Structures
1.
Amino acid sequence: MKITRLPDVTPRPRRVAVGTFDGVHLGHREVIAGSDTVLTFDPHPTSVVQPGAAPRLLTDLRRKAELVESLGVEELVIIPFDREFAARSAQQFIDDVLVGALGATRVSVGENFRFGHKARGDSELLRADGRFETRIAELLEVDGEVVSSSHIRGLLLGGAVEYAGHLLGDRFTLAGEVAHGDKRGRELGYPTANIVPDPVFVTPGHGVYAAVARTLDPPGPAYPSAVSIGVRPTFVTGRGELIEAYLLDFDGDIYGATLELAFRKRLRGEKRFESVDALIDQMALDVDAARAICS
């Protein structure tokens, strides 16, 4: 899949799906269906227009591109979103971007999509333009709930990674640089790769999870993993929230590498243990459970 910034795009006939597409969830996939090009924004428009209200994101741009490519899309066009772009009127967005820059012959959006200065543009404005066909995808419901990025964020914060993955259409993943920690896991016989959560992105609720880990930079093989997210209540560390991944059957140094975790299932909540031995016994059970789920 070709990835192009809007200023570098070459006009050609395109079937364009437009949206923020955070998570590229099942609802987004309905919007994208039948499109050869996806037009999206980076950073998230709300982070520019109303920074205090910006949501924690489900996907970074790398992961979004990976998911869009998996849908058979030929080109991902990225709008470098800033205040100048936000000031464009809805009609300017249609004239300059959809028609002028992209040469859109079909435009596909979700029924709640808004665009242009002060979000004054909507699907009806698109439909009224005769220069391209407009496709409006209705909101998708699963189990009586509208599939939305905000709903999935709530599920993840509650630890429901398995169901969140179902609504996403793929495993929920997060990635970060492996950092040095207290070496506590090594002392307990379970050395962990530690990631400090990035406040820009969603982190699943505190607890222990089964996940599959792989390094992205440099690229490496996948390993079943037991992942703890929380503040390590059995120890007084003075540290904040931390993601600790024990990679099964792995022995190596990945400090400084980018590690991706694809979450499969929540094993249990975070708890304080009465003794270190009790913690070690539980960690052995967690590792066995993670192996059974991820292998």
2.
Amino acid sequence: MSQTPNPDTVLGQPQERAASSTTHWGKAPPVPEIRQFLQGPQKRSFELGRAVGIFIEIMSGFRKLHFLGPCVTVFGSARFTEEDAYYVLAREIGQRLARAGFTVMTGGGPGIMEAANRGAKEAGGYSVGCNIELPQEQKPNPYLDRWVTFRHFFVRKLMLVKYSYAFIALPGGFGTMDEIFETATLIQTHKIKDFPLVIVGKEYWRPLLDFMRGRLVESKTIDRIDAERILVTDSADEAVQLVRDAALRQFGLSYGSKVKRRWYLWE
């Protein structure tokens, strides 16, 4: 089993910025300026300041994640414990993804996210987290080679989609469903390519899938192909094989290998 990464280092380098950013996990109150920003029109100076802050947050994410591997993003709840069957399944998925040559990307927190990152580390793979500042529930898991902390959910979701060739979703709540449906919408509307989107946990997701295949398809609010794009399995092996077959056929595993780092771009 791979050792847990030293919290004082990431990629063998002192982790001063990441260490300072994680002090918000589980401790921070709601950020007043973010709540104010989302409460309708504000003073022009305030909105300009928020727009600049969002731009800096986005560019920081781009620079820190630019040289990752080919990634697969794993979605799932932060609330499952190590003893839960879905945690065990996510851990196996992380191991299999790493052995297939993928970087495992998650939201960086506990539960399913921790399990997938843990599995990747145990298999000798690379493990990344896109964290979010929250007042409760989440803290960075100890199985990350690199992590970036974001203040805005929409910036975090951008990074989880931008750097991935496939998506695997295990059981979760509002956040997981938000991530599933945003990804499905981007595929449906051709904003991103037809990347594999695999749902793991047939019984857990059955009511939602029945609603999609029944009510939504029958009402013609989505096309049948939209529902069929979402692949469903209970098997870690099948989930990773579906990802591997589709992603490798289109993209290979050479992403980022020839991109030169530029110090003046914070790389």
3.
Amino acid sequence: MYKFYLIIVFLFYSFIVNAGPFSDFKAGAELSEELTSSPTERRNTPNSDSLEQALLVLDPQNSDMWDYLQISLLGENSKVSFVEDVKVIMQDHIEEPHEVPLIVKLPNRLHNFQKLILIIENNPIQQVIALTPFKPIEALGMNVRLEDDSPVRAAILDNYGVWNIGSKMVFVSSPGGCSSPSCDPTVEVCEQGVVGKIAVKQYEREGEAERIKLKITHPMETGFVMNVDGDLIPEYYVNRIHVDDINGPIADIATYAALSSDPVILLDLPEKGQSIRVHVKDSQGLEFFSYNNNSM
């Protein structure tokens, strides 16, 4: 436990405010590597008091859910290490809990990982994705739902069989990202696009590296939202995304309804791919395909 505290204290001084290269993930969202938004005064810059509180909340021994989640998602005999170099990058103040952009940035030592699982502890749907890579991946981005204040944890399984856990405590100004409609028909026009439409774009990065960004038109119903008649809308979501190119598979991603409607997935790769292809399945058994059209 002492080691865990030392790691978190190191984070306080090493994190930066602006995530820079990820600023194109969602217009207007200032992503941050701070350990937490402010739990004492949510709209203020995090201070020493709020960071001390975050230490307590992020400590797995103080979590009501972590032991269960570790066993159910990572395995009963899983080896876990809470580390400082797996960075969960999000907004410090969550105003729109239906669509929260985040980035998981991996250190060099974990670019060839075995599996990545994203966990939002206090969501009704706690597992967001489980990604199995076939090529090195430097960072993964997505847009998620947040029901309420919660630790957000990225678990990366390394080649030694250890789950490396990076965490961030996030506070939500207006809870309800999983249980209320993502579009309020009383104040805006709610138009659902063609289900299964996939847009793919590739960006060149420094040193022949690449970013793949894909968007899937899909309602991603959680099963916790009521319609105007007071009936629950059945869950309906994308549950598998496969990405490859002419040289072979890049990643298999199991997905859950904790992703936002019309989910966006971002992959940073150390090498540029050719003719990116995406194959998507949803919970009703429908399948969708797309080739890179370089437009969003």
4.
Amino acid sequence: MQNRLMPTFEELLTPLPFYSPRKWYYDLASLFLRSIGTCSEGIKVGFKHGFDSGMIMNYIYNNVPSGRFYVGKLIDRMLLNQVTCKAFRAIKDIQKNIIKDYIQERNGNPTFVVDLASGKADYIYEGLRETNARVRVLLRDIDERALMESREIAKNLGLQNIVSHELANALDSDSMRCITPKPDLVVEVGLYGIIHDDEQIRLHLKDLKNILDPDAILFNVQTYNPQIELIARALKNQDGQRCVWHLRSADLVISWAEKAGFRDPHIVMDPYGIYAVVMMRN
């Protein structure tokens, strides 16, 4: 159940009335972030590419404060120390460990991993560096810039022969049918929170089962975030609109996955109680 002190998803979608003190507060916060705030490299990246983009996730993962002048680095350090950013970095490690453990439990059998909304996919590369198993990886994303960064990582690590990249929409059923052979593990982390329509996720999970039929799926669910209204009213997404994330309970999304045919959920929460990382079996 969503924390009653936080606004609902529907409330976040609704603009605040002009006379609301909260509107004045968030408008001032947005003005500050768009002006002085862009001295911070992270905030600059967020407004350029969207605060729900793979590019800002990569920046947060790197966790190296940068910016123009002393004030820029100071603001950047404050950004990277926000609880939302700490949770992003925590779930990156959780996801890496779950993927690595899954590969290792296959006892040397070839493993095909497909990430349908990969971004740069740091968590997969780190998992690959910690295992010597026979693995092939397909990374797909709608952001060509993130894929370009990912290709560079694969090249630097000497993994071009086992990691391939494709520009594709994770929710496109026809595109999924082009993936061969059927993957052992499907990963799609950071995806569900930016999808507003519950039915779209339910149908997508059914497509995963009916089209790809993987041995296992790995996803995360943003269940709680004390900064959710600030993000929604002061920041922008990849489309230049307000960055409204849809919080859902892990139990709800797991129930949709179970109805699609997946089972045995294994859940790991980040230390801040924001994200649930879930692996389920076929």
